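Why should sequence recovery work at all? Because a backbone constrains its sequence more than one might expect. Tight turns favour small or flexible residues, buried strands favour hydrophobic ones, and helices have their own preferences. The token representation captures these environments compactly. In the example below, the structure is given first.
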């Protein structure tokens, strides 16, 4: 499995690349994707705003974007490469305050959500939304279990 985590723009250091990498790997194991290739970009609001405007025609920042390589006419050529999950740490921090969770928990949820989009999950209907929320929760729980085991062994 190959996971690459990088930063774009002015991002706060509230979360390390190493922590995001470890959680992404845990989610890929939970999804039984041991050979997957994933890119995660942690960015600021101006960076994600530009991407949202360019690719979704929405002139505002958002929390997470997913750029799937397995979609479209050449999707079959992607192999194990899933694509890119782009997360705005600024938006994640705001949402974490609103939801009364840590930034780490918010980013974990956004990572799971974006990863599922790369795999073709969507939430256009109530049934799809419920299924995607349940799978997001499953991935987050897998990471939480893994984190508890590692903390106990440390």
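From this structural description, the recovered sequence reads:
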């Amino acid at each position: 499995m190959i996971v690459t985590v990088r930063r774009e723009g002015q991002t706060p250091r509230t979360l390390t690349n190493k922590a995001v990498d470890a959680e992404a790997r845990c989610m890929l194991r939970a999804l039984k994707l041991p050979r997957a290739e994933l890119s995660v970009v942690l960015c600021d609001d101006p960076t994600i705003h530009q991407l949202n405007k360019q690719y979704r025609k929405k002139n505002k920042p958002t929390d997470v974007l997913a750029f799937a390589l397995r979609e479209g006419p050449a999707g079959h050529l992607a192999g194990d490469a899933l694509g890119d999950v782009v997360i705005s740490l600024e938006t994640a921090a705001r949402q974490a305050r609103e939801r009364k969770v840590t930034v780490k928990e918010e980013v974990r949820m956004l990572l799971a959500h974006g990863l599922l989009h790369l795999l073709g999950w969507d939430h256009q209907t109530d049934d799809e939304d419920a299924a995607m929320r349940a799978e997001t929760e499953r991935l987050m729980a897998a990471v939480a279990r893994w984190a508890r085991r590692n903390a106990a062994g440390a």
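A few observations help interpret the result. The chain has one domain: 2-153.
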